[in-house]
Amino acid sequence: MATTSRSGSAPDDEDSNSTPAMRRLRRLSLHLLQPSDRPSDSLVPAACAGKRRAGGLDADAAALTAYLRGRHRAMQARVYEFYVARPELQTPVELPTAAHRELCFRQMSALVRDAGVRPLTLMASDPAEYFAVMEAVGGLDISLAIKVGVQYSLWGGSIINLGTKKHKEKYFDRIDNLEYPGCFAMTELHHGSNVQALQTTATFDPVTDEFIIDTPNDGAIKWWIGNAALHGKFATVFARLILPLQGKGGEPADMGIHAFIVPIRDLETHAVLPGIEINDCGHKIGLNGVDNGALRFCSVRIPRDNLLNRFGDVARDGKYTSSLPTINRRFAATLGELVGGRVGLAYSSVGVLKVAVTIAVRYALLRQQFGPPKQPEISVLDYQSHQHKLMPMLASAYAFHFARAYLVDKYSEMKKTEDEDLSADVHVLSSGLKSYITSYTAKAISICRESCGGHGYAAVNRFGGLRNDHDIFQTFEGDNTVLLQQVAGDLLKQYQQKFKGGTLSVTWNYLRDSMSTYLSQPNPVTARWEGEDHLRDPNFQLDAFRYRTSRLLHSVAARLQKHMKTLGGFGAWNRCLNHLLTLAESHIESVILARFIEAVKSCPDEKTREVLKLVCDLYALDRIWNDIGTYRNVDYVAPNKAKAIHKLADYLSYQVRLVARELVDAFDIPDQIIRAPIGMQSEAYSQYTQCIGF
């Protein structure tokens, strides 16, 4: 669309007594009714798109990029270059489901067999590099990232994390080179989040030394199983381990949920094996490159060695042994080893957010609408309302970038040390960050679409595909609401330990160090401080976040104790559920801000550090303003200070707008990965018109 200037006389002769609303309407009428001085068919560059305003910071995109780049950017570049050089492997905008599935499998095969990437080896040796590869392939097609995740994080990860030496020797290399495509069969028609209630059974037969896998009813059909409909040859099946005659009175003993390797297709002919029924879950809202299927088992026999026996084993005589004494502890240990999927989703979701924000910001810099009389139109990002939509989102992308790096470092350390306390910490941290980041990204994509107007609705500009493909991130690997409850539950556990004199895990240190301070009455003097230096002090910002979390924790603990007397544990939890979810989100926001502040402090380049400090301040003050009611209710913030926070957050959004181009360029996402014409670094309109045939 042409970038045109609007003509018309200035409203100098307006009645000085007219209302502001009337003056605004008259001014808008000039933009809407007067003809353009420039030919309507001209395509010109956006003159103000890159204009630097007085008073803004100088941002060096290259320096920002250098600081943001992880250790494995070279691997990501290698993956990008591989797919860019193979146009036949790039996913077109419109593609039928069947063709998309076959293309997705070819994309994964080429990554392994032609590019020489060994994802399972990376996952075992350096999880950070594995997650970097996942983000890179997700840039090509999110379906590909999920298919790779099913093959390696889930199917391969179950062998690494739940199996023992014999399983790794037999399966590791063949999974890594894609000779053994597989599935992760946990979810059932009637049960997803409540894994302990799964109904599929694995009954030991001591006569034949085999397990018999059965689907006892339709509710136990394995559902939404990735790779099952077409490509999988094996499945890790989660089932109840049943031992005949070992219960009370000679009854069968239910030993709880265990994982079993079940072949589902012939290795040579690819035919479905006897006793197994596979059906296709069909076309989905998104991720149609992944072949989700449903599995039913009818007396399927597998060798005893196919039990993944790291946490529990069955001997030839049917005797059960485990280093963990209870079903609950074995179950917790089993699920605790599967947190890599949540880490991967949090990591990939940040990548999706970066792409969406980059497209929206670049287009907002390019697109020009209205302006002062007799002057050129201005960039839509110069409007305060547009800055309010996009700049806090851009700040969040930076905040999440540093938070995910922290999560991956903790996860990598956990895999090396196998420290139980660290494992528990990573379990809760991954639950919280996966839930918070994926929920935020899902909402942000829709806001980005809206901010790009009608052009954001074009499929070629990607928001529809990103939204549909990413939406399920909020559900699989743990429903977000369920995961937040795990965070809240752990906070309450830590809170109880604090008052019993116990130790707290690293992530919750601030509760140990400052609980008494945060639970005391707010200082009436500091509650009124409104100076910019004070509001931009990271100590004030982090204290505010942590004060809110501590107050929420203290109050919900009191409410639970009160309601348990009449409603019992489950009823009390349900009565306080919204309170608990708010607590969990508040804590995760505190963790994210702490990591951002640390990243700013650690930045070696002064100018880059100043820019990051600006972005961090916006992230913090925008979050405080969004929940200003909580701070006002407990007098943590006086009315004058609340007003100052609001005013400063708006000003910081404006300041971030001045370096918005450099901030999105610093993500260093190649145009071939962005792909949306309106998100290109140059000649966006020209590329857009070419896309539709001009």
From TrEMBL:
Residue ranges occupied by any Acyl-CoA oxidase C-alpha1 domain in the UniProt entry: 336-491
Catalytic reaction list: a 2,3-saturated acyl-CoA + O2 = a (2E)-enoyl-CoA + H2O2
GO biological process, one term: fatty acid beta-oxidation using acyl-CoA oxidase
Subcellular location: Peroxisome
SUPFAM superfamilies the record matches: Acyl-CoA dehydrogenase C-terminal domain-like (SSF47203), Acyl-CoA dehydrogenase NM domain-like (SSF56645)
Active site as annotated: E477
Domain Acyl-CoA oxidase/dehydrogenase middle residue range list: 183-298
Domain Acyl-CoA oxidase C-terminal: from-to ranges: 537-681
GO molecular function: acyl-CoA oxidase activity; FAD binding; fatty acid binding
Region (Disordered): 1-22
Main location: other
Keywords: FAD, Fatty acid metabolism, Flavoprotein, Lipid metabolism, Oxidoreductase, Peroxisome, Transit peptide
Cofactor(s) this protein cannot do without: FAD
Family statement drawn from the similarity comment of this UniProt entry: Belongs to the acyl-CoA oxidase family.
Protein name, per record: Acyl-coenzyme A oxidase
Organism: Lolium multiflorum (Italian ryegrass)
